[in-house]
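Order emerges. One example.
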Amino acid sequence: MKRFFTYLKTELKLSLRDMNMVIFAIIMPLVIFIILGIIYGTKPAYDGADYTFMEQSFGAVSAVAICASGLMGLPLAVSGLRELKILKRLRVTPVSPVFILGVELSMYIVYCAVSLATLSVAALLWGVQLHGSLPAFLGSWLLTMLSTLSVGMLVGGVAKDTKQASVIASILYFPMLIFSGTTLPIEVMPKAMQKIVSIFPLTQGLTLMKHTFLGIQTGNVLLPVGVMAGVTALCVCLSIRFFRWETD
């Protein structure tokens, strides 16, 4: 465990120097939330709603960090180690793919957790209250985060280099960011589009996070939980099985 935390500490230091994830996973969601707060304040989500627009948006904004970490940060971090031949050197040590991917996964879990904490503090400025169950919301947030990060872990584990990882990550990142409900509410989409975007694990997670935060009856939760758990298990297994140590 000492080796794990030493490597994690080193990776965090290097990541903080780069500042990309600090900007996109922590600062950007916070800025978005503050702008929404300035515009909407304590206004209800719609006429007669029991919750405010800010309370309705909390889950979606918190998913911005998850999306940035899982679909951009993690793939580029792992593929960057491969391109710099760091993984090639680590291959001759007792280090395994599980160890390397576990460290990178843990680092981006830290980013997501810090983002959620800063948003929770900012939410106090507009009196945002949790109407549902805290354990249920944190559970849905955790499952959403792990399923999204596992996708990024797969991309980073098998991509040849950062260029290839960047292309694949962009193909995944922008559709999920726009159509999963993070930026464009799912409710305003046509019914046909809603069915299409429901295949995204992030869509399932955002719906569950929104319902658990607002205390809305979610009905059968087995489908979203099953989708996210299945995606997580599949991506983790594939990323370990087909992990590439070198670019060749």
Q: What stands out?
A: The radius of gyration is 18 Å. DSSP finds ten helices and no strands in the chain.
